[in-house]
Write a structure and sequence with these properties.
Order of helices and strands of chain B: HEEEEEEEEEEEEEEEEE
Helix content of chain A: under 10%
Number of strands of chain B: 17
Radius of gyration of chain B: 16 Å
Structural class of chain B: mainly beta
Shape of chain A: globular
Largest sheet of chain A: 5 strands, parallel
Strand order of the largest sheet of chain A: 1-3-5-7-9
Helix content of chain B: under 10%
Oligomer: heterodimer
Structural class of chain A: mainly beta
Distance between the termini of chain A: 32 Å
Largest interface: A-B, 30 and 33 residues
Distance between the termini of chain B: 18 Å
C-alpha cells in the first residue's frame, strides 16, 4: 500500500498515519504494514508524521516505511526551529518523523536550504537513511532500541546532524 | 601512507567484536566546499557493539569498512560512545583534498572499545579518550594527523589499553596520556617545530604503566 502525495507550496501540512490511515489507504487484512511516500516541493512546509506499531505487534512481520522527498527551503519545521547547538535530549520538534516498532524504515531526501528535520525510531532493527543536499540544514536522529542503523549523507555548507542512539 | 594505516586498522588491526548486544550503527558522510563547516554530533550511549563508520552512499564498498567522513574546512565532530565493543572511525580531510580548521573530539568508554581519528590537513585539532577496565577485553585509541600546525590529545586509561598518536608535519603539538596496567603506547612525531614539552598548549607525553610496551619516535627534519 502506498500513499503518494505531491502538494506544491502547501503550508502547515500535518500528516499522521496509523493503522487506521493505512487501512484507509488500502491496507489488506493480511498485511498490516504501513507505507507512506511523500514528495513535497516548495517552501515552509511543516511536517508531523507518526507511524505507530501495528496492533498485531512486532512479531507479525508488519513493518512501517516512510519515504520523504523534499525540495525547497525552510521545510520540515523551520517555524519552530532549533538552530545548531542541539542538546542531546532535544525534544523532537521541527519536522518530526516518528516510527515505533521493529524493522521500520525511514528514508529522507532533502534538497534545499534551511530545512529542519527530526527523526525518531523506537524498537529493534530500524533503519533511517538520509541524504541532504544544500546549505544550513539540520537533522536530528534519535533511535532507541537495538540493532538500529542510521545512514546519513550531507552535502553543502553549514549543515548539522546530531545522532543519538541508545538501547535504554 | 595514512590511508593505508587507516585501512589496516579498520579492516585487520583491530578486533571485531561479534558478541550479541545492541548493535547500533551510524554511517556518515558530510561534505562541503568553502570555509563554512558542518557540525556532527553522535551520542551512542548505553549501547553495546555500536559503530560509527562511513560510506553511506556505498561508493567505497560495504558500509563499516571505511571511516565516517567530513570533507571540507572548519568542520566539528563530537562522538560519545559508551558501552562494550563500541567502535568509532572518523576521518576529516582526504588525500588530495586536505582540510583546515577541523575539530574532532571522541570519548569511548567500555570494554574492547576502539576509537580512531584521522586528520589530513592543517590547523586541525583532535581529542580522543578511550577507557576500559578489563584485562581480557583491551581497548585501543589512535590519532593520526598529517599536516602542519595540528594539535592532538590522546588519553588512554585502563587495563591492557593501547594508544597510538602519530603526527607528521611541522609545528604540531600534542598531549599524550596513558595510564593503566600493561598499556601499549606508540608515539611518533615527524617534522620541524614539533612541540610536546608544555608549550603551545602541549602538556607533553605521560605514560604510567607496568609491563607495557612504549615506543616513542621523534624525527626532526
Amino acid at each position: 500500500m502506498s500513499t503518494p502525495f505531491n502538494p506544491r507550496r502547501v503550508r502547515n501540512l500535518v500528516i499522521a498515519t496509523s493503522m487506521l490511515v493505512s487501512v484507509m489507504t488500502g491496507a489488506s487484512a493480511q498485511d498490516n504494514s504501513n507505507t507512506l511516500t511523500l514528495a513535497v516541493e516548495g517552501e515552509e512546509n511543516v511536517l508531523y508524521i507518526s507511524q505507530v506499531e501495528t496492533p498485531s505487534g512486532s512479531g507479525s512481520g508488519a513493518t512501517n516505511q516512510i519515504d520523504i522527498t523534499i525540495a525547497g527551503e525552510r521545510n520540515g519545521g523551520a517555524a519552530s526551529g532549533w538552530v545548531t547547538d542541539l542538546p542531546s535530549d532535544a525534544p523532537l520538534m521541527p519536522g518530526e518523523l516518528m516510527q515505533a516498532g521493529s524493522g521500520n524504515k525511514l528514508s529522507l531526501n532533502v534538497q534545499g536550504q534551511n530545512n529542519l528535520f527530526a527523526m525518531s525510531q523506537t524498537g529493534e532493527g530500524n533503519r533511517i537513511t538520509g541524504q541532504i543536499i544544500g546549505q544550513s540544514n539540520e537533522a536530528l536522529v534519535v533511535q532507541n532500541g537495538m540493532d538500529n542503523t542510521a545512514v546519513f549523507s550531507q552535502s553543502g555548507q553549514g549543515n548539522t546532524i546530531m545522532v543519538s542512539q541508545s538501547s535504554l | 601512507m595514512l590511508r593505508y594505516l587507516l585501512a589496516s586498522l579498520v579492516l585487520a588491526g583491530f578486533p571485531i567484536v561479534a558478541s550479541a548486544g545492541d548493535n547500533n550503527r551510524v554511517d556518515l558522510l558530510q561534505s562541503a566546499t568553502g570555509s563554512i563547516g558542518n557540525t556532527l554530533t553522535i551520542d551512542q550511549s548505553n549501547a553495546d557493539n555500536s559503530l560509527v563508520a562511513g560510506d553511506p552512499l556505498g561508493i567505497q564498498g560495504a558500509p563499516g569498512e571505511s571511516p565516517a567522513q567530513q570533507i571540507g574546512d572548519d568542520n566539528t565532530a563530537t562522538l560519545t560512545l559508551e558501552g562494550d565493543g563500541t567502535r568509532a572511525f572518523l576521518e576529516q580531510g582526504q588525500i588530495g583534498s586536505p582540510a583546515f580548521g577541523n575539530e574532532a573530539s571522541a570519548f569511548i568508554a567500555g570494554l574492547a572499545g576502539i576509537g580512531m581519528i584521522q586528520q589530513l590537513g592543517a590547523d586541525n585539532f583532535a581529542s580522543l579518550t578511550v577507557t576500559s577496565e578489563s584485562s581480557t577485553s583491551p581497548s585501543d585509541g589512535a590519532i593520526f594527523q598529517d599536516g602542519n600546525k595540528n594539535r592532538g590529545t590522546l588519553t588512554v586509561e585502563g587495563i591492557n589499553v593501547s594508544g597510538t598518536l602519530r603526527q607528521v608535519g611541522d609545528y604540531n603539538a600534542n598531549n599524550l596520556s596513558v595510564s593503566g596496567q600493561n598499556s601499549s603506547v606508540e608515539f611518533t612525531q615527524e617534522g620541524t617545530g614539533i612541540v610536546n614539552s608544555g608549550n603551545s598548549g602541549s602538556r607533553g607525553v605521560s605514560v604510567y604503566t607496568n609491563a607495557g610496551n612504549v615506543s616513542i619516535t621523534q624525527t626532526n627534519y
